[in-house]
Specification:
There is one protein chain. With 132 residues, the protein is mainly beta. It is 14% helix and 55% strand. Strands 1-2-3-5-6-7-8-9 form an 8-stranded antiparallel barrel.
Length: 132
């Protein structure tokens, strides 16, 4: 009985790990207009990806105090297959603007290419680097 239960739990754990979205984890953003960057913790919010600012840094790598720590930067991002995501929003603290966005895993999952648009004007958000 215990052996069957242990086998079932191990199988469920393996399946859950295999099904985890490859974009989950902590990402370092590309530098903003001021040269500052942040660490974004990407996780699941229901059936969508969301990402919270967990730390801010100056252009020289010093930790910055920010009122935006804990704020969602990404929300409602949907996986579309082939390491592509869209349908969500990304908020840019340096411009205080929210963009309709898309993302794509690049460099074997070590990078996350980000782009956002407001109407027909799009902004390249650069490629974020995986931290964890």
């Amino acid at each position: 009985m215990y052996r069957q239960l242990t086998t079932a739990l191990c199988t469920l754990t393996f399946v859950a790990s295999a099904m985890a979205d490859p974009a989950l984890g902590t990402w370092q953003t590309a530098p903003d207009d001021n040269g500052n960057y942040g660490h974004i913790l990407v996780g699941m919010c229901g059936d969508s990806l969301c990402g919270e600012l967990v730390q801010s840094f100056s252009s020289d790598g010093e930790v910055l105090e920010s009122e935006n720590i804990g704020r969602n930067i990404i929300w409602d991002m949907k996986a579309r297959g082939n390491d592509r995501y869209d349908g969500g929003k990304i908020w840019s603290p340096d411009r205080d603007k929210t963009y309709t966005s898309k993302m794509e895993l690049v460099d074997s999952g070590k990078g996350l290419a980000v782009e956002g648009c407001i109407l027909f004007i799009c902004r390249d958000g650069g490629t974020w680097k995986r931290i964890e």
